[in-house]
Design brief:
Helix content of chain B: 55-70%
Structural class of chain B: mainly alpha
Distance between the termini of chain A: 81 Å
Largest interface: A-B, 95 and 88 residues
Oligomer: heterodimer
Number of strands of chain B: 3
Distance between the termini of chain B: 46 Å
Number of helices of chain A: 7
Order of helices and strands of chain B: HHHHHHHHHEEHEHHHHHH
CATH topology of the largest domain in chain A: Rna Polymerase Sigma Factor, Chain: A
Number of domains of chain A: 2
Order of helices and strands of chain A: HHHHHHH
CATH architecture of the largest domain in chain A: Orthogonal Bundle
Radius of gyration of chain A: 22 Å
Largest sheet of chain A: none
Helix content of chain A: over 70%
């Protein structure tokens, strides 16, 4: 009885080891693909670069822990951003006294072109675009940022704790607003 | 008159969702058919695509280039994996060596506790990885394993009744009821915190969990104090109050016509409205006041709708008579406030519409079997009114030909009035 039990347990443990290696591979792949995106999203939430990098790693380790517990995650990217969003807000909440990170976006960016006049026009347009984004409401900007990270409406809704229809409405208004500001200055 | 003109490009609002593949199949087909027939909406779709492309370019070229890179090189996650594994490893024949490996890692980790990788990895998965919010720690004496996550995914509205992922309440722990949730809703309602504030309510095991983001500290304290009498309620605030110079509230229409490009509404309609109101200054004041009223009314409508969605007829049947009375009282307060708001908007806007050539219309209430259905209808007419009002006052692009805005708004207002009355009737007991 005893040898059989040990053998069975050993085989089970080996299977678990194999499954673990597979999960690690899966998490590592996503980590390499998406860590910069998560990091950048956390910066836009107001986390300072070091905090954002730390939180990014934590997000992926949570992803790993969740998979290891046997939970299935249908949309890993959606899950990652949802957790990143909530973790980002938590990190900021712990630092009430500290000013949020405010990235100074380089609005001098211009298309790489030899034509100085075209560069000027592009630069002006980028500046208008940047102002339009800055003037969106908080929720509109968050919806837009998450949509730009490839999340679908239900995933954005889950991350922000709002309804899917609200996501659609925020995005619609955001795009409409940007379109108008960029077209009409 | 062409099909699109009669329907006023009602699909236009759906174009982005259509592009994003987020519409139900039937609706998507409807939009597709409309697009085949309507050049104007096709051009609008192209514009949308261009704006989306610009957003993508902005993210890649401007944000991507401007945001600071990570301060350190990205480390491998191997060590973190080992820590997670060590903490999770079941007792088995292989566990002993793994425990020893884990101990080695743990020792290494403690030596380098200041580094973020190990700090993360040292945490046991059963303990919250981040310090719980003050309110949470104060209100949840249960062992960590039974704590709802303080930082995990927040369920969306459609999934609001889902349990948070890994919380499995112990069998002996009572489960929060819909009645408990209703009590919490009632307290928030008393504070006016159900009118568009970023609060979510979920039931999680023995707790009713209220999650709030971006609330000022004073408001957070007020909410915590008000809910202190409900022991099963847990409050989580996950964002500090906005900085004073942080911009604007959550999405809403621009508050005045100056906030939006005038080109969004044909100048002829806008100038006719101004003329009727007695000049630009009067128009500004009228516009700001009316849009404010409409925003407030929409906040009510959303609150009522949320109540209707959360307490569907099936859920309602689980309530005790007292709780049911409370639910109807809450709904009634919303409908009464909506009647007042609708009255004020109608009184201000109807004479203007008549002066602009609209003929008075009356709408018949549509009989609804339940107050939840009546609320959904009310939501539709309120949204339509809000959109048309914004078009009339030049803060949104009209979805219909300019000439249609005035008569359609008159119809929408009449429908809204009928729907509010019907809804009010359906919550009267």
């Amino acid at each position: 009885m005893l040898p059989y039990s040990i053998g069975g347990e050993f085989a089970g443990a080996m299977r678990r080891e194999g499954a673990t290696a597979k999960i690690q591979e899966q998490v590592t792949r996503l980590y390499e693909e998406a860590r910069e995106d998560v990091y950048r999203y956390l910066l836009t939430l107001g986390l300072h670069p070091a905090q954002a990098q730390e939180a990014t790693q934590e997000v992926f380790l949570r992803y790993y822990a969740t998979l290891r517990k046997g939970e299935s995650i249908l949309s890993p990217r959606g899950w990652i951003f949802r957790v990143a969003h909530n973790l980002g807000l938590k990190v900021r909440a712990r630092q009430d006294s500290e000013l949020p990170f405010d990235p100074v976006v380089d609005t001098t960016y211009a298309a790489q072109t030899a034509d100085p006049e075209r560069q000027l026009v592009e630069r002006e347009r980028t500046l208008r675009f940047h102002r339009a984004v800055e003037n969106l409401s908080e929720q509109q900007r968050r919806c837009l940022a998450l949509r730009l990270e490839g999340l679908r409406y239900p995933e954005i809704a889950a991350a922000l704790g709002i309804s899917q229809s609200a996501v659609g409405e925020f995005l619609r208004r955001a795009i409409e607003r940007i379109k108008q500001k960029v077209s009409h200055g | 008159m062409a099909e699109w003109a009669r329907h006023g490009h009602s699909e236009r609002e759906l174009l982005l969702a259509y592009l994003d593949g987020e519409l139900p199949a039937r609706k998507a087909r409807q939009v597709q058919c409309h697009l085949q027939a309507c050049w104007e909406c096709r051009a609008e779709l192209e514009d949308l695509q261009k704006t989306v492309a610009e957003c993508v370019r902005y993210r890649r070229d401007v944000l991507g280039e401007s945001l600071p890179p990570p301060p350190l090189q990205w480390p491998e996650l191997t060590r973190g994996f080992a820590q997670v594994d060590a903490a999770m490893q079941p007792k088995s024949v292989l566990s002993r060596p793994l425990v020893r490996w884990a101990a080695v890692f743990a020792t290494a980790a403690s030596l380098a506790a200041a580094t973020f990788v190990l700090r993360t990895a040292l945490r046991s998965p059963s303990a919250p990885a981040l310090a719980p919010a003050k309110a949470l720690s104060e209100m949840s004496p249960a062992p960590a394993i039974n704590h709802p996550r303080t930082d995990g995914p927040v369920p969306s509205v459609p999934g609001r009744r889902q349990q948070l992922p890994e919380t499995a309440p112990q069998k002996s722990v009572p489960v929060a009821s819909v009645g408990d949730e209703l009590q919490a809703v009632a307290v928030l309602h008393q504070l006016g915190a159900d009118l568009g504030e970023p609060l979510e309510i979920t039931r999680d095991g023995p707790h009713v969990v209220i999650t709030g983001t971006a609330l000022p500290a004073a408001r957070r304290r007020q909410i915590e104090q008000a809910l202190a009498g409900l022991p099963q309620v847990m409050v989580r605030f996950s964002e500090p109050s906005p900085q004073p110079d942080e911009p604007r509230p959550t999405a809403a229409l621009p508050k005045t016509a100056d906030d939006a490009p005038k080109t969004s509404s044909p100048a002829s309609l806008l100038s006719r409205v101004e003329l009727q109101l007695g000049g630009h200054a009067q128009f500004q004041s009228f516009s700001a006041r009316t849009l404010e009223q409409s925003d407030a009314a929409m906040a009510r409508v959303y609150a009522l709708r949320r109540l209707a969605q959360e307490f569907s007829p099936d859920v309602e049947r689980q309530l005790s008579p007292g709780e049911e009375r409370l639910l109807y009282r809450l709904a009634k307060e919303h409908t009464q406030a909506l009647m007042a708001a609708e009255g004020a908007i109608g009184a201000a806007v109807s004479p203007l519409l008549t002066a602009l050539g609209a003929t008075p219309v009356a709408a018949a209430p549509i009989d609804s079997k339940t107050w939840q259905v009546a609320t959904e209808k009310l939501f539709g007419s309120a949204r339509q009114t809000d959109t048309l009002l914004a078009a009339l006052l030049g803060v949104a692009t009209p979805d219909q030909p300019t000439d249609a805005v005035v008569p359609q708004l008159a119809i929408a207002l009449a429908q809204l009035q009928a729907d509010v009355q019907q809804c009010d009737l359906s919550v009267s007991r």
